[in-house]
Amino acid sequence: MTLAEARVEQAKSRFDAFTDGPMATMRREMAQRAARHSLSRAGAVDASRSSALLVHHVPSILPPVEEEKSHSSPSLAREIGGGRELGVVDERKQSTMSTISTVLHADEIAQLKLYHDNSLAASTRKAYQSDYDSFVHFLRDRFPRLSIENMQRQCTLEHVLAYLNDLCNDGKKISTINRRLSTIKKHILPTLFNRALVPGSRDEMMMREVEAIVRGIRRTVGADQRIRGKRPLLIEDIRKMVDVAAEVTDDDGDPMPNKRCRDVALLLFMFHSAMRRSEVAALLWSDLTFDKRGVVVVVQQSKTDKESKGQTIALPRLEHSHCPVVALEAWKVKSKGEGDSPVFRWISKKDEVQWRVLTDQRIVALIKDHCEAIGLGPACFAAHSTRSGYVTSSSERGVPISELMKRTRHRSVSSLTIYMKCDDLLRNTGDKKL
């Protein structure tokens, strides 16, 4: 018996005791994966057929299976059970993954796979997928002779520079350029950038040029975009928007009390809570606790709370007509919200409250619509305008930075000061206090 045959028999024998029951099909597939990998290691199968171009930078629990080469680009994100991977792999990592699949039981693999997928936020995985698709699409168009299947071996730093230049010409934001470069370094071409660490090599000298060009991009493109950044929605703007939203009607001129109530509550709450749009979209009524002094909001998960420890925001009752707590209570009664139902929900054209949650993209569209309703250019504002508007309006009224950081949950003062924007530079200066 040859070495390859012995490894095949060994892999099959590990699952002989588990051939009965509902997981038999899964176990047979795992045995076939291990057998195919064993043959590949023994030289009976081309190694390229048992390796994938992309897997997650943390080894995946289940190894990828490729029955035949596909001309479509591999997906960067892996859905549960979708068979698609993220990151970059080599033969040793492939061997490790196959070993894991032959040692663990199928239910253990499924559970660990679930934990693995939750190591990254859905938005992060989506961003990585977008970055990979963008890079591969550029390479296919600009360098048609470059084999995507052998991209790790054939790509050079010149290809990366051409891609960065293309992003600048397309008017991409500096944050997008930085993120895509980071994705290429860490997940798509880590071997290429690791070679640039070798002292005296050509790649090291070329890497210095790359770093100089990236600094130039940040100084030119980044500076221009900082000047053209989104404007904040100040408290005066929010109150105008609330007054106009309270009079909204449908296409026939009929009043829409449900939409009025929801939009008023949404505008006031987003401004005074200074929450991110994704956090607002994920809110449930069980996360809100009302009392006579105000409302306490528990943010279950956020950008700065990856492990879902929970963060708390307290909104007091205000003595004027634009109180966010009163608006929330009115919307809760109107929408019959309770328990684990979403706080902000869709409303149909017939002014009927639906159980469908109001997505973060829809929140952006609503804010832009209300900006246009009071004569503000919607292109200059976004959902983050309420967050920066709260910081700007509060700082102009002398609210201490420590209090602002409690509300925005920023960890550093430098991050908070980015949100302090004022169109009128003479409005609040220290000279008046001298």
Element layout with pairings:
Elements: H1 3-13, H2 24-42, H3 91-103, H4 106-117, H5 122-142, H6 151-154, H7 157-169, H8 174-188, H9 190-195, H10 202-227, H11 235-245, H12 257-273, H13 277-281, E1 288-291, E2 294-299, E3 311-316, H14 324-335, E4 345-347, E5 353-357, H15 360-373, H16 384-396, H17 401-408, H18 413-417
Antiparallel strand pairs: 1-2, 2-3, 4-5
Output the keywords.
434 residues, mainly alpha, hpI Integrase, Chain A, three-stranded antiparallel sheet, two-stranded antiparallel ribbon, 52% helix
Please describe what this structure looks like.
It is globular and about 75 Å long. Mean pLDDT is 76; it is low at 17-22 and 37-92. The longest helix has 26 residues, at 202-227. It is mainly alpha-helical. The chain contains 18 helices and five strands. The chain folds into three domains: 3-120, no CATH class; 124-227, no CATH class; 235-433, Intergrase catalytic core (hpI Integrase, Chain A, Orthogonal Bundle). A hairpin with a 5-residue loop joins β4 and β5 (353-357). The relative contact order is 0.07. The protein has a three-stranded antiparallel sheet with strand order 1-2-3, with helices on one face.
Unreliable residue runs = 17-22, 37-92
CATH fold name of the largest domain = hpI Integrase, Chain A
User: How would you state the average pLDDT, rounded?
Assistant: 76
Largest sheet composition: 3 strands, antiparallel
Number of helices: 18
Briefly say what this structure is.
The protein has 434 residues and is mainly alpha-helical. The protein is built from 18 helices and five strands.
